[in-house]
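Hello Y.,

Per our agreement to keep a running log of every chain we model this quarter, I'm adding this entry. I've kept the format consistent with earlier entries: sequence first, then predicted structure.
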Amino acid sequence: MPSRKPSKKPVEGAALTLKQRLFVDAYLGAANGNGKEAARLAGYSGKALSELAYQTLRNPKVNAEIERRLLESAMSASEVIARLSAQAKCSLESCIDFDEQGRPSLNLKKAKEAGQLQLIKSLTPTKYGYRVELHDSQAALSLLGRYHGLFVDRHEHTGEVQHVHDLRTLGAAELAELRRIAARLDAAGSESG
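Predicted structure for the entry above:
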């Protein structure tokens, strides 16, 4: 049986080296998209970290892995709509406890169990407890309304409108008048812009 010569062409989907995997992890994690920092965190050494990062990012396998992981973590359109819907309906009333005097407090354990922690925009400590800020339900409703085509921008036109069905039938004087009107509209538009 004749021996096969190994292929010089990289195999699609071939595994990354350990340093390349560390680079991708760092690039998408602690380095926050900074190639030079990702190279340093991955253990690359030398004075030319920027060049090493550039070359690593140009590697088709590394690039494909970064793209794959970004797509894997991206939110689908239906998930975006679901989260906006949850924000629009935002209510943490099932997560509110009342003490003996009737004072309310947010029970974060209940909120977590109910899967409603994502509704909280911020939690700020104060001398009286925590200030809770929820995401803006009106903004979420507005975005959902636009998505569903509920809101239509309308423009009011004033003045006499003459409908011309075929511009080829206009005479020279009528075409000249249309050009003057168009020039005035252009000038008015550039003055207001």
